[in-house]
Every structure is written in structure tokens, then in C-alpha cells.
Amino acid sequence: MRYDPEQEPYVALRTKALESLLIEKGLLSTESVDDRIAQYERDIGPLQGAKVVARAWVDPAYRKRLLTDGTAATGELGIPAGPPLVVVENTPAEHNVVVCTLCSCYPWTVLGLPPTWYKSFAYRSRVVIEPRAVLQEFGLEIADDVTVHVHDSSSEVRYMVLPERPSGTEGLSEEELAALVTRDAMIGVAKVNLPEGDR
Amino acid sequence: MNGVHDMGGMHGFGPIVREKDEPLFHAEWEARVRAIMNLSMVDGLFNLDAFRYGIEQMAPADYLRAPYYERWITSVTRNLIHNGYLTSDELSDYIERLSGSAPSPADLDAVEQWQPVAACIEPPRTQPFSIGDAVVARNAHPVGHTRLPRYARGKRGVIETLRGSHTLPDANALGIGECPERLYKVRFEGRELWGDSAESNSVVHLDLWESYLLPAPV
């Protein structure tokens, strides 16, 4: 099979060569690579985080445990432990947003793999110096009297935002609440809203 | 190192572009690179700090041009070569075998420029900081790996959480060892970091190791 730069980028060839070489050396197997990819696609994702948020909204004791020890509290819901997880809570006076300016650290145990914008140079460079302007770009106006807290993930500790529960959701079940929670709200670039028709 | 990866506060990257209904991976090779990196790390072929350092050592222009997972495969390759699991010749041969003519990746030439190995350095402080202590992030510019962003160096902050003992990335990235140190969550006011350019009522929090910090002068 000849390499055709028209068909695939050079980096795809590099990847193929590296994988083949590592397999030949007995350091890797095709199956283990396939299995790992299947895990990314199947086992992790923002549904885990949404489940955590909904539980925290309906169960004040759980909310307290979650804010004290995010790793243990997410473990209670069957989420396997990864790097230490710290959950920071949005309130009417405090808004939290998460970034990794140095690379792309992300709370993958609860949110899965990061979107490209989270890893982008624009987001990494800007959100620490002009968080309100960045949030505005995401459609989020933060009032002047609300403190914006930017968490720059410089250690192995990972951050997830516990968004505010929207009003008008008093009658919803935990499952219905979880369905409202978006990945962006748990990064801190969005709020959780009721669907258009229900407002 | 004062690399281009240390982007906090830089200007010129434009608006944040979001992709609607973004797939998990944009191409099969991206998924395979991620899996290869993860499996190599789980198998102990290199550690996460060395992986990050490998990315940081890309030439700034290459770093900025390369897609995300190309930065990953560059570092995976460099780490595997550095740790003796393969040679750049072996990889070049394989690339040629698969392609007929494609050249080997140019960035492998720089692998030799890795930092030399030394021993753990005891942090000069023995008395730990306490919550509420005023600190200054060191104005240090190490050529190796560090997790103290440039925008915080020399700036005053306040200790807000004690995180216990954590592997020091600066040492671990170079293969010196874990050299664990106390880690603190430190709060920096936007105005302290950005002066008059700061937005009102904004705060940045960083997790910083003890050797990154000094007691603030009274």
C-alpha cells in the first residue's frame, strides 16, 4: 500500500508507522489500541458529569460531599477515579470557568474528551486575561458584581463546575434534570437553561 | 521553559471557534494517537510530565502549525526514542517502507537536546504555608519543564487550599524522579496579574508547588 499525500496527511502515515513498529517490538497490540478507542467512544462523556450535577441539585448532603471531595462523591455514582477532581460551585455571586493555559488538562472522568475549542490557542490565551469577554462570546453575560473565578488547571487536579439549578425546574425528576445539563455548563462557559418552549 | 505553549494572556489568536456537533475525533489517526499515548503511559514507557515536556520542546512555529494530535505523536515519538524503545532510524525505515519515498519527520532531529538528569532538589522552605498566607510566585525562568505559567511569575497571591503532597512535574519530566512537594491552590486577583488591563472583579486560581512560591514581603 503506497502512501498517497492526496488521500491522507503525512501525520496519518507517521501514526501508522509508529503503531506498526511498536507492535513489531511487542510494546503494543492492535486490539489494545482498538479497545482503548472503543472506551473513549463508549465509556466516558459529559453524561457522567450531568448525572453528578443532577444528584447534587436534588440531594443537599450529596452536594456537600461533592464540593468537599469530588473524586469520592463521583465515585459514589460509579464513576471510576482518575486524577483528583475538585468541583467548584456557581452561585448568584460567583461564576467559575475552567481552562488549562499550558496544555489541555480536562476533567475527563466526568466530561469525556475536551472539545477542540477548549484546546484552542484562543481559549487558552484569552480566558485568564479577559474571562468576561470570552464568556460573552459564548453568549454569557456576567454582571459586574459577580466575581468571575478562572481555574487554570496547572496541576493534576481537575476542575468541574457545578452550575446553578435553573428556576422552574422544581417539579423535574433527577433524570429530567440531568438531561438539561450541558458539557459547556460544566466547563463554565454556559448556564443551564430550560428548553425554549418551557421557559 | 518559556515556550509558546505557555499562552495565558497572549494576544492575537482571535475569536474562539466552536464546531457544531463536533465528533470525538476528526480522523482515525487522531484516535489511534490518543490510544497509543495512553497505552504507552499506562505501560510506563514514559510519564505524563515528560509527555508534556516533549510537546513544549517543539519549535514554536511547529507547535503553532501542528494540529493537536500531531503535537501528541511528536512527543510520544520523542519520548520513546529518548527512553530507548525505538530509534529514529527504525521509524524512518518504517515510514519509507509504508510510503516508498516519504521523508522521516524532521522534528526527530532535536531529540538529543533533552535536559540532563540530576537529583531531587529539596525545596528551601521546611515550614509549610497556611491558608491565608500571602505569597509571591517566584520570578524564575527554568529551561526545563515547569507548571508555573509566565503570567503568574513575580505576582502576589494568597494560599487558599492545601492540596497535600504531589509529584513535582519539573523533576518528573526530566526523569529525575517524583520529588514530591506540597501543592497549594493560590488565588491571584485579576488586577495583580494584568494591571489596568484586568477586567473588573476577576480572579485566577492556580495549583502551585511549594518551590514555586515565596512568602510575600510584608
**Proportion in β-strands of chain A:** 5-15%
Largest sheet of chain B: 5 strands, antiparallel
At the fold tier of CATH, the topology name of the largest domain in chain B is Cyclin A, domain 1
- What value does the Rg of chain B take, in angstroms? 20 Å
Number of strands of chain B: 5
In the residues of chain B, how many domains can be counted?
2
What's the assembly state of these chains?
heterodimer
Overall pLDDT confidence of chain B? 92
Shape designation of chain A = globular
List the strand order in the largest sheet of chain A: 1-4
Report the radius of gyration of chain A as a whole number of Å: 20 Å
> What is the class of the largest domain in chain A in the CATH system?
Alpha Beta
Q: Supply the CATH architecture of the largest domain in chain A.
A: Alpha-Beta Complex
What does this entry look like structurally?
The complex is a heterodimer of chains A (199) and B (218). Chain A folds into 2 domains: 10-42, no CATH class; 46-198, Alpha-Beta Complex (Nitrile Hydratase, Chain A). Helix content of chain A is 45%, strand content 11%. Chain A is built from 11 helices and 4 strands, in the order αααααββααααββαα. Chain A has helices at 10-24, 30-42, 46-58, 60-68, 70-76, 108-111, 116-119, 121-126, 131-137, 174-180, 183-187; strands spanning 85-89, 94-99, 147-152, 158-162. Chain A has a two-stranded parallel ribbon with strand order 1-4. Chain A has a two-stranded parallel sheet with strand order 2-3. Chain A is globular, with a radius of gyration of 20 Å. The termini of chain A are far apart. Chain B folds into 2 domains: 28-113, Orthogonal Bundle (Cyclin A, domain 1), CATH 1.10.472.20; 134-215, SH3 type barrels. In chain B, helix 1 (28-42) packs parallel to helix 4 and helix 2 (48-56) packs across helix 4 (68-82). Chain B starts with 27 loop residues before the first helix and ends with a strand. Chains A and B meet through helix 1, helix 2, helix 7, helix 8 and helix 9 of A and helix 1, helix 2, helix 4, helix 5 and strand 4 of B. Strand 3 of chain A pairs parallel with strand 4 of chain B, so a sheet runs across the interface.
